[in-house]
Every structure is written in structure tokens, then in C-alpha cells.
Amino acid sequence: MNKFKRKTSLNFGPLNINAINDALALELDSGEVTISISAQNHAQRNHPRDYAHCLPHLASVVNNPLYERDDYKNPDKIVLVS
User: Fold this and answer.
1) Residue 4, in any domain of the structure
2) Would you state the pLDDT for residue 46?
3) Which of 39, 52, 53, 75 has a CA-to-CA distance to 46 between 20 and 30 Å?
């Protein structure tokens, strides 16, 4: 039996890119925020307690982060925190 439930990609809608570009002096392109099935599986395998606790709150973090910053370890990526 597969211990992972069948998943679908999660789409949280468009990111407020104008606010992020203004705050971080970036020129990111607009787009949808999506978490792939493989990213969900990775999080569930490697961070099972965090995954179960955080998943229900991801949409609110994406749509209304407390702050955002550049992800210096991953070029052209950002971090949203709530």
C-alpha cells in the first residue's frame, strides 16, 4: 500500500508581484503560485510533521505574507513568511 495519498498540483492563484518587486527591488515576472506533486511528496517525506501542520495555511501565506525576502541560496527565487 502506498503511504502517500494521491495528490494533485496545488494552485494558489497569482502572486502579488508588484508589491514584491517594489519591496525587494526585483523584476520578477508575474505568474501563478503552484506546488507540484513532487514538491508535496518531498515535503511529506522529509518534513512530515511540518508538512501536515503547514499545508492548510499555505494559501494564506501566499496571498497575505507577513514579509517577503530574496532567497539568497536559490537565485531568482523568493521566500514568503507568515
Assistant:
1) no
2) 96
3) 75
Q: Please give the model's pTM, rounded to 2 decimal places.
A: 0.68
- Domain for residue 3, yes or no? no
Distance CA(82)–CA(58), nearest Å, equals 9
Question: Cell triple for residue 10?
Answer: 496545488
pLDDT of residue 69: 87
Kindly state whether residue 2 falls inside one of the protein's structural domains: no
Residue 44 CB burial class (10 angstroms; 0-12, 13-18, ≥19): middle
The β-bridge partners of 70 are: 78
DSSP state string for the chain? --SSPP---EEEEE--HHHHHHHHT--PPP-EEEE-HHHHHHHHHH-HHHHHHHGGGHHHHHHS-SEEEE-TTSTT-EEEE-
